## 1
Amino acid sequence: MTDKKKIALAACSGMSPYGLVARVTSTDIVAENDNIVSICMGATAADKEGFITLIKKYPIIAINGCENNCTTKILEQKGVKATKNLNVLEELDKVNLKPLDVSRLDEEGEICVEYLKKKIKKEIDR
């Protein structure tokens, strides 16, 4: 039985500054909310036991890092359609924010994370 009160975030795991912002944003939101779980995209793509069941259990917000939309594509390959698809690169371009580092958040990266957290929380509250 699906717990309709919970929602899942599936964040990009790519090696770009936008992927890092996607992961940190997702991690922060999950840590701040008991009703939100995180999906490991690497384990999902690799068909790790239990993850296929997990991605079908809760509504998912896919947080794609760039125009490749790998998170959304991996979910679709596994037979799951995200309830919302968010593209970090597009969202940050709209407000002229640009993370710079692929492995460490600097001040600009933290600003990007805070902006996206607010945007995703609005989606969750809908």
## 2
Amino acid sequence: MTSTYHIGLLLSRLGFSGLMLTHGIPKLMKLVQGNFEFSDPLGIGALPSLLLVVIGEAICPLLIIIGYKTRLAAIPPAITMAVAAFIVHGSDPIGSKEKALLYLFAFSIMALTGAGKYAVDRNRH
């Protein structure tokens, strides 16, 4: 693979995961502060829902940014965005779910391609 391929993977990891953190960090702070109020789209309870979203929107994107276990780390954000697009915004117009769908595609692609060579674990694919 060419170095431009690996730079593309790096930019994708940094861009999408960095932007996802703008959603995840406030939820992480909410959790740390003891505020467990959150929507429950799957019927598992507010606290488990918040914990899963923090994993998908804060913890895993940090792992992806550094390139550690990227393929595995990309799965929770993809699932989180699938829930956002198809359950939380399921009956909304496409414009309301577009951002979640873009993230879903981006993290799905990362799960398939891996981090590339500019990563902590230097996974080639």
## 3
Amino acid sequence: MTLQPTTCTAFEGLRRIASGARAEVALAVKQVIERGEQAPVLVFDDLTSQPVEFDLRGSDADVLARLAGEPSGSTASAEEAAESADQDAPRGRGRPRLGVVAREVTLLPRHWDWLNSQSGGASVVLRKLVEAARLAGDDKDRMRLAQEATYRFMTALAGNLPDYEEATRALFAADRARFQASMAQWPVDVREYAERLAAGAFGEG
């Protein structure tokens, strides 16, 4: 899996002050803090809602230079790296390597009978079944991660807002209509960001 470039969003109290690349948000936060605003400033990672902290010492150039030294948010998985290496490796004679690994599978006779009766044979059907199960698991993981990210943000910023507990229950019940209704009285910036984070919890995004 390849991660998306890291972006974040900053709030001054319940007001959103910046959203986008880390460098852009860091400078906006620096400006707010230097202005002497009293409301707390919190920055959230747009994917996980984990808090983001910036070293804002020195000039804008100093801040940007430090950020430029951070690791990139885009990385390749070990699986992708191995696949790439396999593609680049020289090929010998004979059948090309397809990345297929042969292992023993133990099934009951009726399972083998059903598999062998399917189009493409047992191996093709098994691969399709595994892939379908994997994708279903990915959907559940995306839903869980979206719920966790939204809850983390709501706990940090919306815990004292009206119907917070009802919104939380609706989030984990995957009830989008009730979730939105519970946030109706929230400041628009908080409500919109919570809805953005929660999209995956309702099978969107």
## 4
Amino acid sequence: MALRVGQKAPDFDVTSSAGKSLKLSDFIGKKNVVLYFYPGDFTLVCTRETCGFRDSYAELASADTEVIGVSVDSDETHRRFAREHDVPFALVSDANKSLAERYEATGLLSRVLGKLGRVTYVIDKKGHIAGVFDSALRASHHVDGVRDLVRKLG
């Protein structure tokens, strides 16, 4: 079960694989945040999803929106994934699944395989959930949904 539209987004204070501190409170009043959880780097659907956000990044950034990807993969794996796929946004390692649990991005994959579920949140500039996209196999559902919603947020 994912968080619902209109709810206040749980705060986070994480460090990206590039060593950058990321706090939701730093974005409030300035930027929307796309926080997407995915099972793992270098897998087919996850790579397609990340590359979709990469290809949309300039459009999203121009609409005052930051993208952050989260999986259980290590910082080193994230750095290699980002390098190989020219990922311009932050990737965060959530090995202990604490962020995923706050955002209800755990489920069957988490319990059986130790991975995160595929769920994407759009958090508006006020810090509220503006959209939730949940599809295990359709990366385009996440990317296209985010792009459409960010356009509407203005």
